[in-house]
Amino acid sequence: MVAVTDTRANSNYDIVIVGGGMVGISLALLLRAQRPWKILVVEAQELAVSDSPVSGAYSSSFDARSTALSWSSRNIYQSIAVWPQLKRHLAAIAQIHVSDRGHAGLTRIDAADANVDALGYVVENQWLGSVLLNQLAETDIQLLGSAGVETIVPLAAGMCLGVQQSDQDLQTIDAKLVVIADGAGSSTSKKLGIQSQSSTYGQTGIIANISLEKPHGGVAYERFTDQGPMALLPLTDFKGRPRSALVWTQPSEMAESLMAADEQSFLEQLQTRFGYRLGRFKQLGERVAYPLALTTATEQMRRHLVVMGNAAHSLHPVAGQGFNLSLRDAATLANSLAQAGEAIGDLAVLQQYQQQQAADQRNTVLFSDSLPKLFGLSSSVIALGRNSGLLAMDLIPSLRNSFARFGMGMATREPGHG
Ligand SMILES: Cc1cc2nc3c(=O)[nH]c(=O)nc-3n(C[C@H](O)[C@H](O)[C@H](O)COP(=O)(O)OP(=O)(O)OC[C@H]3O[C@@H](n4cnc5c(N)ncnc54)[C@H](O)[C@@H]3O)c2cc1C
User: Fold this and answer.
1) Which of 11, 48, 204, 292 has its CB 3.0 to 4.6 Å from that of 252, i.e. a possible disulfide?
2) Domains in the chain, ordered, with CATH?
3) C-alpha dihedral sign at 242, 247, 249, 254
4) CB 81 within 8 A of CB 205
5) Would you say the CB of residue 149 lies under 6 angstroms from ligand 1?
6) In this model, does residue 306 exceed pLDDT 60?
7) How far apart are the first and last CA of the chain?
8) What residue owns the CA closest to ligand 1's atom 30?
9) Alpha-carbon distance 415 to 197, whole Å?
């Protein structure tokens, strides 16, 4: 277990991160790798570290989902030595198989064609959480679990936070820089008048692990159907059984009945929608439903303040981009701060960070927003267009490679950024 930090005797920090989810913890490790800043992570849920998957109460980020990590995320985690710990929990994506149910279009993107070992890597969030939190426990980064930010007030040289931990007295904590990473619809941002804009897709993503009759062979299936996209991502075997992680996007009213269906009926419906490329679906893990929306913060930066992760941009999961983008944001911020000397809260430093990430954020948000809209449309003319798109991608290697590079988080980066 992580020792609960008592910050009361020690209330001045260089950097306070509000939200210890996938993004907050990753950022803390990236910062620690740069400079010996005094860092505190404030997390609403109880913090637990063990060598088994993180589960139970501390679950909103490290829950039953899986994450497809891009090539850029691999490079970033390699730079802070997280990768070797993560490796045994990863399934490499050797091929992405994109198809459109009921239409001819189909394309395959191969790691070999893109000249990489893998097009991405799939990890269960609970294992990602376990590795990140264990790594954090090896550092002097302080963690305050079961704690929330009650007040946040700008000062001349930083921010002052009023932090409430469980039923203890309110603590006052000063920081030169506060990074808000407390998830979509961030309550801490709202305290500063930073709003978020949200547009719903009217869709719900149902996730579950599925055990398979046939080995997946490292193939990630992305299948577009008239009801929404569905992905089956390769996972590591469990008890010798091959498994894939399902993300099944459905109009929200249909998702409700799928969530209520018994295991057999759910698997039968899935089989009908997906087909038999992986043989019979054998068993169904825990199902969780996520209502899907594009949510973006109206501001991502002020003096002594950065908004990051889902608190800054929360995307449709179809393209598997949300966390990968946030990790690139986090790595860029850590680099910018490392070059800033003492001036880590200065507007010019934070503006430079934002300028560096602006194109990446814009392109990734656009890509993740357009895919479900394009493939969600069912008119036959559009269907023809999207199928010729898939066919063209299959016929023109450079087009396919640029799709693959985008998916890997490379197309929007300057060379050398990974
Ligand atoms: C179905 C699905 C599949 C996805 N698949 C992929 C994928 O394959 N690849 C990919 O790149 N992305 C994927 N994503 C996106 C990815 O899950 C998110 O980008 C990621 O979870 C964002 O992490 P976060 O830390 O910003 O936010 P969160 O995960 O929401 O974490 C926020 C943390 O802040 C804490 N918190 C909240 N309020 C407070 C407060 N007031 N004070 C302190 N702490 C607080 C919470 O307890 C939580 O721990 C997927 C998303 C979904 C829904």
Assistant:
1) 204
2) 12-62+126-197+293-369 (3.50.50.60)
3) positive
4) no
5) yes
6) yes
7) 34
8) 183
9) 32
